[in-house]
Amino acid sequence: MTNEQLKQWLQLFTDKVVENKQYLSDLDTPIGDGDHGANMARGTTEMMKAIEEKNPETVTDTLKLSAMTLISKVGGASGPLYGSAFMGMTKASMKTEDLVEILEAGLADIQKRGKAEIGEKTMVDTWAPTIEGLKNNELTIEKVQSFSEATKDIKASKGRASYLGERSLGHIDPGSMSSAYLFETMIKAGVK
Ligand code: ADP
Ligand code: MG
Ligand code: MG
């Protein structure tokens, strides 16, 4: 990925999150505290503002600035988790240009911080199959969406939704949806 592609990706991601701010918060209402859309819209908007102001010139610098802004501006559980994801990607980008390896490092840091495995109804349930799909050269926007949809059938065992136990069933996990936006816009930006 080039720095230009990365910036295009982050802009499309921000637009998608801002457009769907209400929907993300609506997903967070029955199984959380209804703030995921507001958290993500605030954080991504601040991230783009920082990128425009500081104009980072390399992939690593852009990822690092994004990580720091997400950590400090998103808030909630998702802020440190997205921040960790981008920090993991930052570190990997210093060693490799391979997108799969970069995303794997992002997922590893999400899991290091949040301790969630696949099947606990979190953003991990979008990240893990997306990376798998990318590895096998069969990732599509429809598939990314289906990974988030599939969290409906999972009982939450991490995050706020875990307080609901069985009652978390039937609802899409909000963080899995914002992560689906992340990967949908990655595909749209032609990031490879
Ligand atoms: P909060 O729950 O603090 O209000 P948000 O609503 O912004 O934070 O984010 C909630 C999302 O964070 C969940 O939908 C889930 O995807 C994600 N999440 C919560 N805990 C974890 C965890 N331990 N590991 C991975 N993702 C998590
Ligand atoms: Mg919330
Ligand atoms: Mg909250």
Automatic annotation (TrEMBL):
<comment type="function">
    <text>ADP-binding subunit of the dihydroxyacetone kinase, which is responsible for the phosphoenolpyruvate (PEP)-dependent phosphorylation of dihydroxyacetone. DhaL-ADP is converted to DhaL-ATP via a phosphoryl group transfer from DhaM and transmits it to dihydroxyacetone binds to DhaK.</text>
</comment>
<dbReference type="GO" id="GO:0047324">
    <property type="term" value="F:phosphoenolpyruvate-glycerone phosphotransferase activity"/>
</dbReference>
<dbReference type="GO" id="GO:0019563">
    <property type="term" value="P:glycerol catabolic process"/>
</dbReference>
<dbReference type="Pfam" id="PF02734">
    <property type="entry name" value="Dak2"/>
</dbReference>
<keyword id="KW-0418">Kinase</keyword>
<dbReference type="InterPro" id="IPR004007">
    <property type="entry name" value="DhaL_dom"/>
</dbReference>
<comment type="subunit">
    <text>Homodimer. The dihydroxyacetone kinase complex is composed of a homodimer of DhaM, a homodimer of DhaK and the subunit DhaL.</text>
</comment>
<feature type="domain" description="DhaL">
    <location>
        <begin position="4"/>
        <end position="188"/>
    </location>
</feature>
<keyword id="KW-0319">Glycerol metabolism</keyword>
<protein>
    <recommendedName>
        <fullName>phosphoenolpyruvate--glycerone phosphotransferase</fullName>
        <ecNumber>2.7.1.121</ecNumber>
    </recommendedName>
</protein>
<dbReference type="GO" id="GO:0004371">
    <property type="term" value="F:glycerone kinase activity"/>
</dbReference>
<dbReference type="GO" id="GO:0005829">
    <property type="term" value="C:cytosol"/>
</dbReference>
<dbReference type="InterPro" id="IPR036117">
    <property type="entry name" value="DhaL_dom_sf"/>
</dbReference>
<keyword id="KW-0808">Transferase</keyword>
<comment type="pathway">
    <text>Polyol metabolism; glycerol degradation.</text>
</comment>
<dbReference type="InterPro" id="IPR050861">
    <property type="entry name" value="Dihydroxyacetone_Kinase"/>
</dbReference>
<dbReference type="InterPro" id="IPR012737">
    <property type="entry name" value="DhaK_L_YcgS"/>
</dbReference>
